[in-house]
Fold each of these.
Amino acid sequence: MNKQSTVAPSPTRVLILGGTGFIGRHAAAALHRSGVHVTIGSRRPARHEQRYPYAAFRPVRFEHLLQPDAWASLLIDVDVVVNCVGILRQRLTESYDDVHHRAPAALAVACAQANIRFIHTSALSLHDGAKSEFLSSKLLGERAIVASGADYCIVRPSLLDGEGGFGARWLRGLARSPIQFIPRSARGRIAAMTSSDLGDSYVALVAQSAMDEHREVELGGTRHYSYAEYLRELRTDYTDSKALQIPLPDWMARIGAHMCDVFHFSPFSYGHWILLQRDNVPEPNSLPELLGRPPSPIRSKVDEKVRADLSFNLEP
């Protein structure tokens, strides 16, 4: 009697869009550690291939792929798409509507047609009537994905702290300053979380055979801070001294946000100014369920394993 041979299942094949950005690089590193076959979509593959030796690359100009047919060749031999693409500010060739709405909408339809699971990274606190195109375009993108027929999951993380993040570095720089200006209306709560925990949450989601139990996933840490409290928390990683926190009139904060949008010298934007006035906390928080453990605390010393995995691909 012949014994039946067993064949190990092939690893899941994941295409990560925005895989060289802040969120994407943590997702790519975590998925690689889990044994997934990682392909990164990038507009400049040759620039990044040496930094990500474990990944294959496909050339992708995300903002140009605005019809489902344009995605078809890029989705060959892919089981799951993880979209981590986003822009803080518009450029001449990249609009909020194209990057946050029209391209994800076309991608979702293409995934539905190819029977590919689609995990899309969005944001908390999106709402109708937001006077920021940064926010409104993300909300339109979410709604288009829901209507696409895809097997989708929308991931909405709270504020991220971690290695390689422009905003995270900026906030830690502010935390070290002895004088901090706090907008008076910045009373929204923040459920800050680590970027490495977000990467691990993608691993848990990719492992699902279908996304029907995780259509909309809101993620964050277990502690809720105001903006002023969060800066004080970050400051404890560097010094025991307290900073002088000076209230800033709202009109000055708004002008400052618009100036940041014009001159691009800070990650702060008008959209972020709006978000600071609203709670940015998950309801409910799916992070502990996905991780199978409590979320990691916010800290300045990045876990050594995560640092080792990311050290070769962090931008100089």
Note: The chain has one domain: 13-310.
Amino acid sequence: MNTRHIQQHIRTSPKKKYSRKSGQPPGLLLYTGSEPFPTSVGMIQYDEDEFHEKKNIDPSAAFQSLKSDKTNWITVHGFRDTETIETIGKDFGIHPLLMEDIFNVEHLPKIEDMDDYLFITLKSLVWDMPKKQIDAKQVSLLLGKNFLVSFCEDDTPLFEPVVERLKTTKSRARSRKEDYLSYLLLDKIVDNYYVILDQFDDQTDELEDLLLDKPSNEIAQKILALKKQLVILRRTIYPLKEEIRSIAHDESPLINSFTRQYMNDIYDHLIHIIQTIDNFREMISAMMDLLMANNANRMNSIMKTLTLISSVFIPLTFLAGIYGMNFRYMPELEWRYGYFALLGVFSLIAGGMYYYMKKKNWF
């Protein structure tokens, strides 16, 4: 199998530059992704009776527009304009190291309790159908006493169902504060993980059918590509489980007991997802073992066939070698029917060996 071809096949995303932050001072707002999306800031305010949404607002006006009697949600999309995001960070008192984590899209999921606010960063996963791979985007949430700020890499429509739900006057979410809103956003992200699991299920079923019906070298490439996507999924979800468990059980004043129960539900979902991921790992390992066993059996079959053919031709080659030594006195060479007699001997030997091997079920 061509190793270079496999590497080209499974390398479906742009190569990351992990050393981009090397030598840079701490707290530097340096985007570690491939290409930053244009920055836009919006604001949503609501209570049980009213809902207001503003798009493309001035970043300096976000903090000044907070209302204590309403739920305040500031949305930030895109990291191209670092000055805009830095302004929001200063207004809301975000620690410079946490601002750095917002821009570092390779950061593992984590939750930090800074007393005055909770900082949450995790990955939003979407399945790219044409490329058959996971598209991971970082989402960061800043939950304070009277505000929630969300930071997204691009203009993702991920939270649009949440916004539509909040627009409904009969929605229970309208009567809750920012901690419940943070739960809604986290729950939406985790629900998307199930969509990824469904795609993994379809991919594994397809590979199993190909492996049993039409085994080929291309299957090994597809299995390796799927295994790489599974690594991305594990790296995203495993750390998040423990972080969600911490905020679900720790008595943070920013999350009330009502919302904490819903956080426990997210934790249960993550446990189920992790168990499913472990099952996929075992299935992929089993498929790799089966593929290697099939290749070994195929190689053994080829070697067996070549050995049987060689066994038939070895005595024939021996006899042909004797009569090809060009000795002067070989009586058979002067016999009129010597050539035909030797062909007959060859045929008898070959036929006899074939019958013997067939009787022994060697092929």
Note: Confidence is low (pLDDT under 50) at residues 1-14.
Amino acid sequence: MHKRYLRWGAILLVACVVGVAGGLFGLGGGVLLVPLLVLLFAFEQHKAQGTSLIALVPPTGLLGFLNYAHAHEVAWTFGLLLMPGVFLGGFLGSRLAQRLSPDRMRFAFATLLFLAGAAQAVAAWWK
């Protein structure tokens, strides 16, 4: 019983950190929660990705959006134009992910994170 409470506490702590990062930086699921689920909770890559979507999209997405909208920090037309592509891309991407082995999926995910992080670091450094 004690181990269960420790695990629940760890899950809550990780969720809070990811929630703060989501609200602060506009990220969370793909960048933080998925690797944390894999590394700390021994999730398989696909299950971590699916779990992050249910955990983050409704609460973080909606609440973060509402706060940014209230602060007049939403480009409405641009955002609405992005929706069909994100919708279709999310569907196609999740179908493609199911065809990849967990190891290949984890490698592809890590490569994407590395390249995105390197691009951000270079852009910040050379500004």
Note: The radius of gyration is 16 Å.
Amino acid sequence: MADEDSRKLVERVAASRYLSKSARLRDLLVYLCDQVLDGPVTEIHEQEVGHKVFGRPADYDTGSDNIVRVHASTLRKRLEQYFAEEGAAEPVFIEIPKGNYAPVFRPRTPVEAVTPAVEPAPPTRDWRVPVLGALACLFAISTAVLLVRGAKPDRHEAADLGPMVRTFWAQVFRPGQTTDAVVDDASVGLYQELSGRNVTLSEYFDRSYLRAVDGDSANAIVLRRQSSFATVSFLSKLLSIAGPQSREVLLVFARDYSFRALKSDNAVLLGNARSNPWIEPFLPRLGVRWMFDKAQGTYYPVDTLAGGEPKTYRAADGDTRESYCGIALLPNLGGNGTVLIVSATGGSAFNAAGAFLSDEDAMANLRKVLGGGQTAFPNFEALIRVKGRSAQPRDATIVIARPVRP
């Protein structure tokens, strides 16, 4: 196949609905194919791809950072989908062999080269399978247990969701725009809790904070790729509810996220600024801060906009404990999308947040408190108090709900 024809094929695949909404997958495909077509190259190494495509240091540790393997696996599946559906009439396949990242342009056999009689229908797939499958690859074995248990969550059809719930999620999952579900980095959060040292987003993004990590044990903690059970549990519930409204959901571990994505995509950021540093750019617009109590080993919210002294919210004394979850809806860094931030004091509070965001009465009440009628939700931040360990919306109380300036 002539190089010109090969490049046109790459352009068609990159522009297809299977890759067009994911800049990272497009960049990966184009880079790999360019290496082969410009070379010729018969072998491309993982470390090279991580450095050239994903901005990792030239000598980064591929054993602890699997960003290339995760995206290559997704790309292989998308290529299979394209050539089975939209590209069924293409005379040549593009394949990326496992164990090597150099693409192969392989002519179809006569049996394979069957031209479809009609325009192929969009691929029908259960959006939960690739998302939950990716989760199992990213997180520790304890989290994988949750995913096996939640592989077939209750399905909520769009008709089951109330108008306020649909209105809210339509702002997060927009047609034609990627929504990144960015799960927290529990390892970097634990490192800060144990060391008492804060890691800024710039240090986290360029990995410069690793130079300050002393000792093999500390390095082992920081380099682990784990998310908290609470955020993964929330994500499973979130996707099972919001699935009918979603068009494209890309699961991303916080360590693999980028400023470019936060400027162009919608995003759901889970955790707090310590465990998910990508929340940091939005803090100047928010009044609620999540503080760590080292003695108790828990987080608690502090409202810095309460007037006068900051107001602290802690679990009440006595038999009945209280937990809190925070919800914020803001523009992305590019002003062309939406960012949903969900933080909580623990697992039960994250579950309560998921229940609250899917309950029509709760969301209608929140919209009423924010003011402005029954239209789309404004930019806002809210703090929800939850009674005991209940995840029932009837046991949740809105203690803060205020619009946030544009």
Note: Residues 178 and 265 are 5 Å apart (CA to CA).
